[in-house]
Write a structure and sequence with these properties.
mainly alpha, 3 helices, Cytochrome c oxidase assembly protein COX19, Cys_alpha_HP_mot_SF, COX19, CHCH, disulfide bond
């Protein structure tokens, strides 16, 4: 009897990194305000993310501005057709 992992993993299993890589956590709360607004919106809209996409853009903009994630084009993030609230409008 084997414990710990399924037998299919014992041979030929390769670990691969995530597509976008890892990024630092926001230990100093630099983007907490944006995160809280986004999560509150999700909570108030029964987790319907389409209603909160503009807040998601603001949150990601904050993360990119503060070096918490690599800067990327909005079209690559699926948010190029949205306006942000303008709280952080730097590239």
């Amino acid at each position: 009897m084997s414990f710990g992992r399924p037998p299919s993993i014992s041979t030929g299993f390769q670990v691969t990194p995530p597509n976008r890589g890892s990024f630092p956590l926001d230990h100093y709360g630099e983007c907490k305000e944006f995160m809280t607004k986004y999560l509150d919106c999700l909570k108030n809209n029964s987790s319907t993310s389409s209603e909160c996409r503009h807040l998601n853009k603001d949150y990601l903009n904050c993360r990119m501005h503060n070096g918490l994630m690599e800067k990327d084009e909005w079209k690559n993030l699926g948010l190029d057709n949205l306006k942000s609230d303008g709280l952080i409008n730097r590239k």
